[in-house]
Each structure stands twice: as structure tokens, then as C-alpha cells.
Amino acid sequence: MAQEYLGRRIHTRLFQKIPLFYLLAGLGGANTKDGFQIGRPGVAEVFAGVAIDRPMKEVLGGFNSYQPEIQIQKNDSSKVMGARDTMPTVANPTTQSQDQELGTAEFRWTRITTPLLVWHESLDRAMNSAGTGVDKQDLAAKNVLINATESATNVHYTNWAQRFWSGSPTNQDADPWDNCSGILEAINDQNVYGRVDRSNPSNSTWQGHVIATPQAADVAQIIDNANYNQGLSVYGNGVNVLLTNTTLYQTFKAQVRARGGVVMLNGLPDIGAFGMKREILQYDNAFITWDPMCPANTVAALNLEYWKIIIHPKKNFLIDAFVDISRNSEGAKDALQSFIDTRLILACDEPGGQALYTNVS
């Protein structure tokens, strides 16, 4: 019953807590007829900035880790050919051939488990208050379990929401990781991300753009700075999402209204049918929304084409059946127990296509 309940409610609650889920669902092609397979045991789900079909989602969910290829150096041995000429050769072929220019990043699973506990006394009191009749008492007991599940899932989502911004694995050689690599970790230029040391000059193409110099809270200037000054326009279509906090969002909202942008009160239309409505701004080619976990004075300029959230099929926001633990051992709690279990990977395939502004006011 608890898993069925979670499956019905997970979209609205999860998308509200973690806007990155919502944006990838609405903009990245996950909203197909077989989309939103979250909260369903035994089914993998992938939210990505580009459409991924169901077979590939199952493949990604079955790996022990996610390993995108990265270009660790650039070798241009191109040649303008004359009428009768020799073919070009690769400079330093033993060390810089194209197959050696590619490295591999690696992202490993992170698992979060949240406990649920419902005392027998709470169930007994609810059933007694319901009066006589088996149906009334059963309904009262179910309501206690549902309320407990709702409380625990809210905690579970909030835990993930915090990690999606500030998550930082303490040991990326460990398996599994003790934390996912959040947005602040992904858009960095001097840390280890995906087991790649970005302080090494040879890994410069794997560096994100961090702008700590003061920036005016002007939505147009930030988009243009990200696309042209930071060079994000060379990655696909450039910036297509700005994530910020509620304070800066309200400033941007006033600017969007005044400059002829769009305020979508019901959110992205493609996923409105799933019951999720979240206010979204659209200015130029970028969608703008707030994230309650975004730090103060911060704006993340993202190209969602390169982001993925991979959810493991065996820990797909799974809720165990409630079990009576009162008879397990002497001194056991007189209660029912369950757990909410999620294992996922958050990864950015191209950090160089992302920018983080940390001093916007």
C-alpha cells in the first residue's frame, strides 16, 4: 500500500523539492508515454537532457557505474591540401593520437535509506477513535500508515535535494559513494569530479566555469555572459536553464515581465498532464526557476543536454512493506517498520558547458 501511495504522489512532491528532476522531465524527453517510471519496483529510470529510449534506460540502470568519455586534450593536425600533396600526419602520434585524447570519467551509485516507524499504540488509538466496524477501523489504520509514509518521503526528498546542490563524495575511489556530486561540485575547475582531477592542466576541458566576481542581478546579462564570455554557446544550444534562489528569482521575474518574456504560471506544458505545476520563466532561449536549496547570491547557468539522473531499478524510491518488529527479539520496539530506499547517479557529461555565478546581487 505504501509503495502504491508513493507511486501516485512522487511526481509532484519530488519535482517540487528538486527542480532538476522537473526540468529534465519537461525539457529532456523523459515525458514520453513510458516516462516517469519512478517509484515502481524493478524498473530503471533515467532523466536526461536528451531523449533516451526505454531499452537504453534499462541498460544504464544495470551498470555498476556510469562512465562518459571525455576529451582530455586537443590535437589539431589538419592540413590544407595542395594539388599533388602528401596526406597529413598526427603530431606526436605515439602520445597524442585521437584514441589517446579520450579519457573516461566515472560516477558511482549513491544510496540513501530513510526509516519509517509506526507504533502499535498509534494504530490502536486511531482504530478505537474510528468506532465500530471493520471497514472504518481498517481505513483509520491505513491513514496512520499513509501519514507516516508522507512524512518520511518528505524527509527523503529533502535529503536528496540538499545533496543535489552540495553533495560531495569524500572518497571517489570507494564503491558505492557516500554522496553524489552535486551542482556545486560539477561546476568547478579545481576539484575531482567523476574521478577526474580537474586541477591537472591536461584535464582543462573537464572544468566548469566558476564566476566569483560581482555580477549584477540582471537575467539578460547573465545569460549573455554565460553564452559568450564563458563560451557556453559552443556547447549545443548554450544555456537553456537558470537555477537560482527565491530572492533572485523574484528579481528576474520582474525583469522578464518588463522585457517581454514569458511567465508560465502552470509550468512546462508538456508535463502538466501529470499534475505537476510549477511557475517557470522564459527569457530568450532559457527557462528560469528557483530551487529552495540554491545558496544565496548564486545562479547556475546550465545546458541540460549534458545532465543525467540515473535511478537504479532495485532502489527506485522503493518502500518496503511494513513489518511488525515487536516480536523479533526481547526488548524490540512495539511498532511496525519500513524503509524508503533510493540509489541513483547524478552526472554532468560536459562540465565545460555549465557556469556557476556565486556573487550575484
Structural description of this entry:
There is one protein chain. With 361 residues, this protein is α+β, with helices and mostly antiparallel strands. The chain has one domain (2-69, 106-353). The protein contains 10 helices and 19 strands. It has helices at 2-17, 19-27, 54-62, 93-96, 98-101, 120-129, 134-166, 183-186, 219-229, 246-258, and strands spanning 45-48, 65-66, 69-71, 102-104, 107-108, 110-119, 192-193, 196-197, 209-211, 241-244, 262-264, 280-283, 286-290, 299-302, 307-311, 318-319, 323-324, 335-348, 355-357. The strands form 5 sheets. Strands 9-19-14-10-13-12-11 form a 7-stranded mixed sheet, covered by helices on one side. Strands 1, 6, 15, 16, 17 and 18 form a 6-stranded antiparallel sheet that branches. Helix 1 (2-17) crosses helix 2 and helix 1 runs parallel beside helix 7 (134-166). It is globular and about 95 Å long. The chain starts with a helix and ends with a strand. The mean pLDDT is 87.
